[in-house]
Design goal:
AhpD-like, 2 domains, 10 helices, 65% helix
Length: 178
């Protein structure tokens, strides 16, 4: 059961409604995820989190799909049920989680594995970890994006777990396109 109330779109202040509309448009979902509805209890946290989410996950050298894979893999490594369920479709989650080493292409696998290492044990990173990515043609921009995605995933996991978020209903969330 959810620990905190969620702000409903119908009763949200105008600024919050605008953010909710942007979330559904950018994420290609029918309704705002519980993560953001709960954060809307603090408009400044909602705005800051959405801005970071949108900038880190939807833009840049690493594709949005790979960034979603990073998020799921870190969520699984950290055992965050809300975050794991909130990203990608259930079939992709199962395939990604069941055998990360089998993920193809190798470039994607190595980005995801690197990002998980960044999230769970950043102090253990060695030059060789960076060289694997550089061997795939990933430059500093891509590496920094992978690190930022790992950091954002850890932020979201902390928020989701601490606020005891209710898992969204997948069918109600996805759009006809997603």
């Amino acid at each position: 059961m959810a620990k905190f109330s969620m702000v409903r779109t119908e009763s949200a202040p105008k600024g919050t409604k605008r953010i909710f509309e942007d979330i559904t448009k950018v994420k290609h979902v029918r309704s705002t995820p519980n993560f953001f509805k709960t954060l809307a209890n603090s408009p400044s946290v909602l705005q800051g989190t959405w801005s970071a989410y949108k900038s880190i996950t939807t833009r840049g050298a690493i594709s949005e799909v790979v960034k979603e894979m990073i998020f799921v893999a870190i969520s699984v490594a950290k055992k965050c049920a809300y975050c794991e369920a909130a990203h990608l479709d259930p079939e992709t989650c199962t395939n990604l989680v069941s055998n990360l080493n089998a993920l193809r292409p190798e470039r994607t696998r190595d980005i995801v594995k690197f990002a998980v290492k960044v999230a769970v044990d950043p102090g253990s990173l060695k030059d060789a970890d960076y060289e694997v990515l550089k061997g795939h043609g990933i430059d500093d921009t891509g590496i920094i994006e992978a690190v930022a995605m790992s950091g954002f995933a850890m932020y979201a996991i902390t928020v989701a777990e601490a606020l005891k978020l209710e898992v969204d209903s997948w069918g109600a969330m996805t759009s006809a396109n997603g």
